[in-house]
Specification:
There is one protein chain. The chain is about 45% helix and about 15% strand. The chain is an alpha/beta fold. Strand 3 (about 100), helix 4 and strand 4 form a beta-alpha-beta unit.
């Protein structure tokens, strides 16, 4: 019976499955229509037409759609957006479920609106405009690499070679504009920029004059890095004119987008004239990994074309696009999808007409088919085919190609995974991503002009203009910068450094100095830097301090001299006085040292009291011993000897501390008594911050901003001073007579001021660290080269010679120009005191552990005999503990003396026996020796 039920159940299941399979097969139509819109007679179109046809044959012969024939209807867009739109409308009238193409990004923008309305997926193998991936076009799917990644590759290429800006020449349509916009964003991420964007009309006359005008404008720019994002017809014409104008010579860099590589792959070898016009050009090609299947198709391609047409990466992507649709349709049918259409209600009000808009219907299964397209996951001729969340192909990568001779050479790869590399992206995918600068590598490049030397990438603009360099017209401290009277020339330390550095540059720098300031007072240096950042001047040369708020808006060179704010104040000579011996130590240092002397005495007394008779006796005697012992260690004259190991350890460490303190005190006191001491009520910037006295600063200096903004000193306390004479007068008058308590200025100025003013000194320490440099606009390549030149001046000694020429100091400045505190503070010795304190603590802990062990031993021995109540027992234990601490130990210093007396007596007895044996000894001599023995015994016992 059970067997019968099993057979019946099996029959029912087989019947259900068979009906479901027949129903699924019956839902598949005999033919599925797919449209293709691209330009047949174009570099990409010629290859795509053959690749799509071969892909359709392979899909149908492989039976991917299980009996359904895939039919692709091709329409020629003829490089026209209008014709592309017409072609798309024609294929959509024939119940088309998907569109392959279009080839042009401009046409794709137009057709995408129709595809959205009719819900027909559109898969383009050549439209690389990054904006097509936006949410505006949900039915557009790019089956090739986006220009978003191509422009990232170009940006990393520019950054790899250390260039700072590029010039972008592009075709002025959606494809060109959006591609260059992506390049601008990619460069900005690396702090690079496009210095000039030049658009070219999509349709241009046969005359070369329009292109020549554009390239002449480019030659007047600073950058020599040119990115060409166009189509082949315009691109080759640009190369031809550039070659005629000498723009393919040494110093230029040309980077073409993937339009050039597609021509090199399909039409190579090109005419010699064409190749000569683009020697040294770099271009990118979409990377497709090598595989057996790809090699087999390339061999098949050569047989199909007879070698007359090469296979480009766009042809491989066109082939895989057909397979994407085939796999998506198969999944669509397996999920129960059906090919059905419905009228578009939005077209109904238009009515019938010659356009036959009513023939265009909505594909009801469009969303399901689109989802299956985006879920594609197979290996095609271009490698793994799958899409990420942005509808972009997985693992974008490009080959980097250098045009050389009659062909080209691959110099490396770029991948979104690890950047630039000489290894294939497939190899890098097996490793962790590494974008470190050391890992970015490319092979050597033959640049335009047939040179292997990397071009600098920029020149001074060839527009007949000189660099306008702002120079402050100083009134004071003219040794640094000063204008020559009656001429537009400048001289000084800063000017000599600049002109000498310019001579070290590997190129000529046309410039002219422009005076800034009215000549009556020093100009504002902050305003000078701002004028450079706004483009009013091309650079600023002078004694310009490199400070934070200025580096945010301009680029500075390497500092050519160090600087920093210091405080200058008047001083008076100090007399030694009766209490000069107290000056080496600060009051806190004196107090802590005295406390440690007493503490050491107490600690040694505790450790020695039980075993050393010299630390025993009446309380008064013991207190005197403690004080005498501790303070006598100051001169290493302590009479009492230590017996315990712990006491000796503490004493050794303390004597080392005393040695250091004595040496430091002696050195400081010697300096105080023998060297002339200078004193000032101003001890440094802290005194000025805490006080209310007026403070002087130099006109135009950043010191005012620093004092008010960083140190929060009231601006009402600040007094602007213009000349060294004003410095001296304000300092001499002091706050009481309308002067200032101190002047805050940069060290180079102060050193020059003190070289002639011997009654003032620098007080305290330099409280800012900076330097002087030359200011250039942000990302100026000249700033980097000038920094290199300044370093060369420093290394060969020229910088020091220029300094000595202009800033030689007089005898006055050779004296000690800084007033420092001559007192020794606790912070210089706290480490010694810490070590000594720890030694005392450890010794006391060990000592009390020993006492407690003895106490517990005695308590255990007396436990059986103890009687009485709890309070009596507690007091007895305390008395026992104190008595243990005070009782004299058996191993005392006196016990050691008794043993030494015993040894002396035994030695004397031996001497007596020897004397008795001597017959020649006289009686008086024996008596004399006995007296001597007695005396020795008495001294020993004492």
């Amino acid at each position: 019976m059970n067997v019968i039920w099993l057979l019946l159940l099996s029959f029912l299941c087989f019947g259900v499955l068979s009906n479901g399979a027949r129903k699924n097969l019956s839902s598949r139509p005999a033919v599925v229509n797919v449209g293709a819109v691209f330009t047949f007679d174009s570099t990409i179109g010629r290859v795509a037409k053959i690749a799509i046809g071969e892909a359709v044959k392979d899909v149908n012969s492989a039976g991917v759609l299980a009996g359904t024939e895939l039919v692709v209807t091709m329409r020629d867009s003829n490089c026209s957006g209008f014709m592309g739109m017409i072609g798309a409308l024609q294929v959509l009238e024939t119940d088309t479920i998907a569109i392959i193409g279009p080839q042009s990004s401009v046409v794709a923008h137009m057709i995408s609106h129709v595809a959205n309305e009719l819900q027909v997926p559109m898969l383009s193998f050549a439209a690389t405009d990054p904006t097509l991936s936006s949410l505006q076009f949900p039915y557009f799917v790019r089956t090739t690499q986006s220009d978003l990644y191509q422009m990232k590759a170009i940006a990393e290429l520019v950054d790899y070679y250390g260039w700072r800006s590029v010039i972008a020449i592009f075709i002025d349509d959606d494809f060109g504009r959006n591609g260059v916009s992506a390049l601008d964003d990619a460069l900005a991420e690396k702090r690079l920029k496009i210095s000039l964007k030049v658009g070219i009309p999509p349709v241009i006359s046969d005359s070369q004059s329009e292109i020549m005008d554009i390239l002449v404008k480019v030659t007047e720019m600073e950058s020599r890095i040119i990115v060409l994002h166009a189509n082949p017809s315009i691109g080759f014409r640009i190369f031809s004119v550039a070659h005629y104008l000498g723009m393919m010579q040494n110093g230029y860099v040309w980077i073409a987008s993937d339009w050039l590589s597609s021509v090199l792959d399909t039409a190579s070898p090109l005419a010699s004239k064409t190749m000569d016009s683009m020697q040294g050009v770099l271009t990118l090609r979409q990377h497709t990994p090598d595989s057996d299947r790809k090699r087999a198709f390339v061999s098949r391609w050569k047989k199909l074309t007879g070698g007359s047409l090469g296979l480009s990466s766009f042809g491989l992507y066109a082939y895989d696009t057909v397979w994407v649709i085939a796999h998506a349709l198969d999944a669509f049918f397996n999920q129960g999808g059906t090919i059905s259409f419905s009228n578009d209600s939005n077209l109904s009000p238009i009515g019938k007409g010659s356009l036959h808009l009513e023939e265009m219907k909505i594909f009801n299964g469009g969303r399901l088919l689109l989802d299956n397209v985006l879920k594609s996951n197979f290996v095609g001729l271009t490698g793994p085919v799958k899409f990420d969340s942005d509808k972009s192909l997985y693992a974008p990568a490009f080959d980097i190609i250098n045009v050389i001779g009659t062909g080209y050479r691959k110099i490396g790869y770029w991948s979104n995974y690890s950047g630039l590399s000489t290894e294939t992206p497939e190899t890098l995918y097996r490793r962790p991503p590494n974008r470190s600068s050391a890992n970015q590598q490319l092979y050597g490049v033959v640049w335009p002009g047939e040179t292997l030397t990397k071009p600098r990438g920029w020149v001074f603009p060839n527009n007949g203009k000189q660099l306008k360099i702002a120079v402050p017209n100083r009134v004071s401290y003219r040794e640094f910068v000063s204008k020559v009277r009656g001429a537009d020339m400048f001289k000084g330390f800063c000017i000599d450094v600049f002109t000498t550095a310019v001579t070290l540059l590997p190129y000529a720098v046309p410039y002219q100095f422009v005076s800034v300031g009215d000549g009556r007072e020093n100009p504002s240096y902050s305003d000078l830097v701002i004028s450079v950042s706004t483009g009013e001047y091309d650079a600023a040369v002078g004694d310009i301090a490199i400070v934070t708020n200025r580096t945010r808006i301009v680029d500075f060179t390497q500092p050519y001299t160090s600087s920093g704010l210091v405080v200058v104040a008047p001083f008076r000579k100090m007399n030694t006085g009766a209490w000069a011996f107290m000056r080496p130590f600060s009051p806190l240092m004196w107090g802590v040292t005295a406390c440690f002397f007493i503490v050491i005495g107490i600690v040694v007394w505790i450790l020695e009291h039980r075993i050393n008779d010299e630390f025993r006796g009446p309380p008064k005697h013991q207190i005197i011993t403690i004080l005498w012992f501790s303070f006598s260690t100051m001169f290493f004259a302590h009479r009492e000897s230590t017996v315990s190991a712990l006491g000796r350890l503490v004493l050794i460490i303390w004597l080392f501390v005393v040695l250091i303190i004595n040496s430091s005190y002696t050195a400081s006191l010697t300096s105080i008594l023998t060297v002339q001491q200078l004193s000032s009520p101003i001890k440094g910037i802290e005194t000025l911050i805490n006080g209310n006295d007026p403070i002087g600063y130099q006109v135009g200096s950043f010191a005012k901003h620093y004092l008010t903004e960083e140190l929060n000193i009231s601006e009402s306390r600040l007094v602007a001073l213009g000349t060294p004479e004003a410095y001296a007068k304000a300092l001499q008058n002091g706050p009481e007579r309308g002067g200032v308590a101190a002047v805050v200025d940069e060290r180079p100025y102060v050193e020059l001021f003190l070289s002639t003013q011997c009654t003032f000194r620098i007080v305290g320490q330099e409280f800012t660290k900076s330097g002087w440099g030359f200011a250039f606009p942000r990302d100026s390549p000249l700033a980097v080269d000038m920094s290199t030149a300044i370093l060369a001046l420093s290394e060969n000694g020229d910088l020091q010679r220029i300094h000595d020429k202009w800033l030689s100091t007089s005898a006055c400045s050779l004296e000690s120009t800084e007033i420092e505190s001559d007192r020794l503070h606790l912070k210089s010795f706290w480490g010694l005191f810490l070590i000594c304190g720890l030694a005392c603590f450890v010794a006391l802990v060990i000592y009390f552990i020993q006492i407690l062990r003895k106490y517990h031993h005695n308590a255990a021995a007396m436990g059986a005999d103890s009687t009485g109540d709890g309070s009596t027992s507690r007091s007895r234990r305390i008395q026992t503990l104190l008595s243990l601490m005070d009782d004299k130990s058996g191993h005392t210093k006196t016990g050691h003396k008794k043993r030494r007396v015993g040894r002396s007596l035994s030695e004397n007895d031996k001497e007596d026996e020897e004397d008795d044996e001597l017959e020649s000894s006289s009686s008086p001599k024996k008596k004399k020796k006995q007296v001597r023995h007695s005396t020795e015994i008495t001294r020993t016992s004492e």
